[in-house]
Amino acid sequence: MGWHRSKNSLRYAIALAVFLCYLATAFMVFFARVDSAVNQNTVELLQSNVQQQSYHFEAVIELQFNTLEVASSYIGMQPQKLTVEQMEDILQSLSSTDTFGRTMLILPDGTGYSSDGIVTQVGDRAYFQTAMSGQRAMSNPLSSSVDGDNKVVLAVPVERDGQVTAVLGGSYDVGALSSLLFADIYEGKGYSFIVTADGSIVSTGTAEADWSERYFFDAYGKVNFSKGSLDQMRTDFQNRSSGSIIVDNQGVGSYLAYEPLDCNDWVLCYVVSEEDAKAGYEFIAHYELLLGAAFLLGVGALLVSIQHINARDRRRLMRKAEEDSLTGLLNKESTARSITDWLNEERCKGYQVLLMVDLDHFKEINDTYGHATGDLVLKKTAQVLRGVFRETDIVGRVGGDEFMVFLKNVGNPEVVQRLMSTVNSRIRGISVDEIPQETLSCCIGAAFYPRHGKDFTLLYENADRALYEAKRAGGNGHAVFQAEG
């Protein structure tokens, strides 16, 4: 007795250990799934936001260039050289729109006349030289003397008679623009950078630290990467590719996503803390429910599995017993039983139709081409019947080449004629490689409930009579039972 008790205790201990292992695994899977899902959703949303804002940034810059080009076209169309007063009026007009901090008209010798009355020599500036060659140009803030670090010069050529006669430029605050773009994301708790491909900082949207003398890659070379790497960022910046990283700076996690801009070789970056990025993920409650379900599954999994297996096997056996093994349709007994059961249901209302379908000259096909070919014909006929009739209709094989179809609750009797014609047509369209010179056909007989019978036996007999009427008419057709007298 003690030996049996010890043996049972060992079994219970093993079962308990297995159960505890299951729970531990469920916990680990749960937390891993939560963390993975949050990170994936956060990164995807962040990258999508940065991509959208990069498009917006480029559209705004394009608008500013268009504004300058409208003014440059006006200057170029003037019949004579502008006076100093006229230049000042045009520049003041552009500056008064709050688009540009100030504007400047630069003569071919590099002398620039600004809207605030300052005369500057910018002949050695790259943006001036590019614009003099007939192209748009945008300076980097570090090479611009206009209004501070976060402002750049947008410059367009002024052309007269196909020749560049001057350059029109305007200072624009790209730092303010990049900060404004992200103001409504994560409640404005993140901040943006504009960085060149080599890591020089063009502008920054944060006042928490002074980045004016700092190098982007140097700053991120001092943090730990949870996702991505410094080399990956360098490569992406050089290849003009978008991407994202996750960093851990002294225990504070942050997400950084970046997208190349179609301005110089700049890259738009956006940084947000892990805490702010993950705030509001209410879907975690869904995983908590999964955890509760895991407890229940651990207790009931074995019983449910056994019950499921037994029920599945019973259904499989019942289905096999009801099916015709060749075609997968109901066999003769199941077809008759299903029709009888339906006729006794309250849902059986209005017209019901029993169809008998018989292939023409099937015996000759079997005798000439063999039973394997005949079986193939029967399978393809079954496929036709499944395709023509509804899933709720009863379709079975009740003899060698005889099929039975029962249409439930037919609203319009005329539909039956069309369906029988469709079956005739599709049977003729069956293609069997083994009998290339044969055209298949069938005959169909129909009997209507309750007009031609109120039980299965009488409907079957009358549909069979209609079938043979169709055969006597030469085959390849259909007929509806006609009561004598």
How would you write the strand order of the largest sheet? 3-2-1-6-5-4
Model regions low in confidence, pLDDT < 50 over at least 5 residues:
142-148
Question: How would you characterize the largest beta sheet?
Answer: 6 strands, antiparallel
Known CATH architecture of the largest domain? 2-Layer Sandwich
Instruction: Give helix % range.
Output: 40-55%
* Through-space gap between termini: 87 Å
Radius of gyration of CA atoms, rounded to a whole number: 41 Å
Number of helices: 13
Residue share in β-strands: 15-25%
Number of domains: 2
Mean pLDDT: 82
Give the CATH topology of the largest domain.
Answer: Beta-Lactamase
The total of beta strands comes to 17
Q: In sequence order, what are the helices and strands, one letter per element?
A: HHEEEHEEEHEEHEHEEEHHHEHHEEHEHE
Q: What's the name of the CATH homologous superfamily of the largest domain?
A: PAS domain
Determine and state the CATH class of the largest domain. Answer: Alpha Beta
Helices and strands: which structural class?
Answer: alpha+beta
Shape: elongated
Membrane topology: Multi-pass membrane protein
InterPro entries: dCache_1, Diguanylate_Cyclase, GGDEF_dom, Nucleotide_cyclase, Rev_trsase/Diguanyl_cyclase
Organism: Pseudoflavonifractor intestinihominis
Protein name: Diguanylate cyclase
